[in-house]
Amino acid sequence: MSLQQDIPDDLPSWEFAEDVLGGFDQFLDVSSFSQLDEGTSAVTREQAPVAAEPAGPSVSDADELEPAQASRPSSSRSDPDGKKQRQNRQSQQRFRQRQRARTESLEAQVALTTAQVQELQASQRQLEARNALLESVASSLTSDVQEASVAEADWSHLPASISDQQRTLILSVTDGEDLVRSVQDISRMPFTEFVSLYTAYARKISQCLTQIAQQSGSTSDLMQELHKWTSEVSGMLVFLAVGNLKNYLAFSSSRLDGNIGPSVSQLPDNFYQDFETRLHLTEAQRTDLMHLRRLFYAKMGALKRERKQLLQQVPAGAAESTLEASTRLADITAIAQQLHDNSAAEFRTYMQFGSAYRRGILTLMQQAVCIVKGFPYIPDKPRILEILAHQRSEMPIVVLSQPLGVDDFEHHTNWQLVVNYLRMITKENLHLYLPLTSPS
Question: Cβ(28)–Cβ(81) under 8 Å?
């Protein structure tokens, strides 16, 4: 093979190579190309006469030319280009690694933040449920329990003038047309209007008692009238207690004649001692009242222990996961319902206690005396029983509220005797004393 055939006629110039690499100026050091251009121009000028000769170069000249022309383009064009490309690829690889690491870091932070937000939301729901539960317990004797008690109350012990189906009460104390009022009507009645009605009933009952004391003949008509007044005012109090216990407590603890004076809780013991003397209780009645007191506080103590156990079951602390928070929320909801039932049972127990005391053990005349002699107050029934208990050296409330060797189920069973006792009270025997310890 001849030397002429090995060397192409149209070798690319360095200007062409620079044009090809022009897009890589930002990555390459073009100063080296300037030096190469100068060297190439010098070689071209030196070789120009040789190219003009008609005869081709000698073998020795070809030997010198071949390494020069073959080696320079290879070293100048490939080595810097390959080095810069490798550097570029490494830089891009490092950049992609940094971007990937940053993306992974951000994704991890987002996942962590999302988990924390979900945990906080679950904790918030749990705290809201717990707060609602505690509010329900704190207001166990307010509207929620009152609304439930309207449906759950034992209406069999209420006065005869109450309609069992419509649960309305006829108030005939006012002059003119009788007033028909429902539980909702009385529960929404303004305080002043309720006081005015109660005061009117107290006056009517006082007039009846005076006439009965002065009557020498038959008093059956007066007793019927007395029965009507006491039944209506008692029913009015029951309706208020069932429909709006908050107003009932405010009413029963206030002075009702509009004058300034102590509240019911501030009345001295001698007020209740004098009041108890005016009732003229028999020994059988005193015995029944003490028996009722023991059963009542044993029942209330059992309900209190049940409520304490339920509160101890309320989970504390924040949930560790959304699933755990949902489970806790369901548990708290169930406990809240049980606490609501417990409070409703406590309310019913108090209502049943008052009915057994006033409408079962006391006679009609004694009920009337309670209204007239207690005015302008409504004497506190538990306070009256404590006066009797002190006189008879009975056990204090704090002792009666303890189990006393009896499980709570038996305390609930014993109170059922009082519930059955209330079912014995009818329109025909409402004015009589019904024995509690040995009912006939």
Answer: yes
Task: Report how far residue 310's alpha carbon sits from residue 308's, in angstroms, rounded to the nearest whole number.
Answer: 5
Q: In Å, how far are 86, 215, 291, 314, 418 from 224, measured between CA atoms?
A: 116, 14, 30, 54, 27
- Residue 76 Ramachandran class (φ > 0 left, ψ -120 to 50 alpha, else beta): alpha
Q: Output the CA–CA distances (angstroms, integers) from residue 181 to 153, 191, 201, in the order listed.
A: 18, 15, 16
What pLDDT digit, counting tens, does each position of 324-380 carry?
777 878 888 888 889 999 998 998 999 899 999 988 999 999 999 999 999 999 999
Q: What is the pTM of this model?
A: 0.63
- Phi-psi group of 280: left, alpha or beta (phi > 0 → left; psi -120 to 50 → alpha; rest → beta): left
233 phi and psi, to 5 degrees?
-70, -35
> Would you call 395 exposed, middle or buried from its count of C-beta atoms within 10 A (0-12, 13-18, 19+)?
middle
Residue 60 CA to residue 57 CA, distance in Å, equals: 8
Give the sign of the dihedral formed by CA 149, CA 357, CA 250, CA 180. Answer: positive
